[in-house]
Each structure stands twice: as structure tokens, then as C-alpha cells.
Design brief:
Layout lengths: L1 E4 L18 H17 L8 E4 L2 H10 L2 E4 L6 H15 L6 E4 L8 H12 L7 E4 L6 E6 L13 H7 L3 E2 L5 H4 L5 H10 L3 H7 L2 E3 L2 E3 L4
Parallel strand pairs: 1-2, 2-3, 5-7
Antiparallel strand pairs: 4-6, 5-6, 8-9
The chain binds guanosine-5'-triphosphate and phosphoenolpyruvate.
């Protein structure tokens, strides 16, 4: 599972100011930490490889148990993913699926990721599959079977681009996988689903099945 993370000072620009009391880089780091933590906790994930040029992201991901490879300078997201997949396939099991997961999924639940990956890896052979984000325009997860290039086409309108490239969209009851956080409204939606520990610590809001509650005191 390859997780790309942009340099924190440039990451999540549309989210800047969403939590006025929190430095923006801390929020971007927390989103990535919760995404990586959920992927590492998912029994269906053999290993997590983070592609980043950011030293703080690299340190946190490495400490959590991910493998880290450096980004290609200024090459962009899809080049980072191709680089990460090359590293994963070279060092890992060539008979396994590879997948890309965006690093802005702070509500991600390991069980939902496992269920999605089960759907990804069953069905007609030889086909790339993807899970769109909640609006249906972007992509949260893209996966390729053994021997098939991932051919990532992330960016604006990536769901359509992935579909046009032959990847098959999957839908299922995986709201935490689809809830990427680009804006303050997305973060509120993620909080309603239940944030991971790093992002929850920054928001100071405990979120239960009935919705957000203010912290005590
Ligand atoms: N390694 C790496 N990851 C990237 C790069 N560009 C984007 N990403 C990651 O790709 C994922 C999806 O990107 P976006 O949702 O657009 O996130 P973003 O670029 O941080 O957010 P905006 O600044 O609001 O566009 C996130 O996990 C980003 O951290 C890049 O050049 N290199
Ligand atoms: C890069 C992507 O994220 P977003 O559209 O959320 O910026 C994508 O979905 O391909």
C-alpha cells in the first residue's frame, strides 16, 4: 500500500485556517498519521510505503512502522506513486496487488479498508480497480493486480480519469475510506464519522456514534 504525502508546508492548502488554533502543518501531519495508522492496522495490508520529501512525515511514518522512500523533487503526485510502487514491487512480493491510498483520510477504519480491499481483489482478474472519494470526482484508493502497472491518474477529476483508463469503480459501505478531507466542511464530516487519534487530539472534540461532543472542562 503506497501512501503519498506532500511536503507539509504545501499540503492541504484548501484546509488552511480550518482549525485557527492549530498550526496548519500539524493538521496536515495528523491527517497523514491517522491514514497511515489505519492502513498499518488493517489486516489486509501487507505493508505500507510512504512516499514523501517531508522529514517530519518521514520520521512519523517510520516510527509508526511504515517504510519510507523519498519523493522525486517536484515530480508531482503521480510520479511519486509510480516511484513508490517501483520500490514496493522491487522489494516485495511480485505476486501481490499494489495500491495507492491518499493521505487525507483521518476517519479511515481498518475494517472498512479491509472490506474494500477484499472487494478490490475479488472479481474478474487482471483489472485495476478504484474507490472514488465521497463527492465521486476524486479517488481515495487505486489498486492494480500482480503484473499490471498501477497507472495512477490522480488529480482534479481523477475518478473520471481512472475510469477512462480502464479501471473499474467499486462502491460499497466504506464511508470512512471515501471521506477525504480537502476543506473545513470535509473535516467536519470526518469528525462525524469518527476521527483517528492524531487528528482528534488536535480538534479537541470527542466524536461518538451520536456525533461530536465538547471535551470535558
Ligand atoms: N509524495 C507526494 N504526495 C503528494 C504530492 N502532491 C499531492 N500529494 C498527496 O496526494 C494526496 C492527494 O492530494 P490532495 O488531496 O490534492 O492533497 P494536497 O495536494 O495536499 O491538497 P491541496 O493543496 O488542497 O490540493 C495527498 O495525500 C497529498 O499529500 C506530491 O507531489 N508528492
Ligand atoms: C488528488 C486527488 O485528490 P483531490 O481531488 O481531493 O485533490 C484525487 O482525488 O485524485
Amino acid at each position: 500500500m503506497v501512501v503519498p504525502v506532500k511536503r507539509l508546508r504545501a499540503a492541504k492548502s484548501r484546509l488552511r485556517g480550518a482549525l485557527p488554533a492549530v498550526p496548519h502543518e500539524e493538521l496536515a501531519l495528523a491527517l497523514a498519521a491517522d491514514t497511515v495508522g489505519a492502513a498499518l492496522a488493517c489486516p489486509a495490508v501487507a505493508g505500507v510505503l510512504v512516499v514523501t520529501a517531508d522529514p517530519r512525515v518521514a520520521a512519523a511514518a517510520g516510527a509508526a512502522g511504515a517504510r519510507v522512500v523519498p519523493d522525486r523533487p517536484d515530480a508531482g503526485l503521480n510520479a511519486a506513486l509510480r516511484h513508490g510502487v517501483d520500490a514496493a514491487v522491487t522489494d516485495g512480493d511480485r505476486q501481490t496487488w499494489v495500491a495507492a491510498l491518499t493521505a487525507d483520510l483521518p476517519a479511515l477504519r481498518p475494517a472498512e479498508l479491509a472490506a474494500a480491499l477484499h472487494a478490490v481483489t475479488t472479481g474478474p482478474p487482471g483489472v485495476r480497480r478504484f474507490v472514488a472519494d465521497a463527492p465521486g470526482t476524486g479517488t481515495a484508493l487505486l489498486a492494480a493486480p500482480p503484473g499490471v502497472p498501477l497507472d495512477p491518474r490522480f488529480g482534479v477529476g481523477s475518478a473520471a480519469a481512472h475510469r477512462a483508463s480502464g479501471a473499474v469503480p467499486l462502491t460499497g459501505p466504506w464511508p470512512s475510506l471515501r471521506r477525504d478531507v480537502d476543506t473545513a466542511a470535509d473535516l467536519a464530516d470526518a469528525a462525524r464519522l469518527g476521527l483517528g487519534p492524531a487528528t482528534r487530539a488536535l480538534t479537541g472534540v470527542a466524536v461518538g456514534p451520536t456525533g461530536p461532543t465538547a471535551p470535558p472542562g
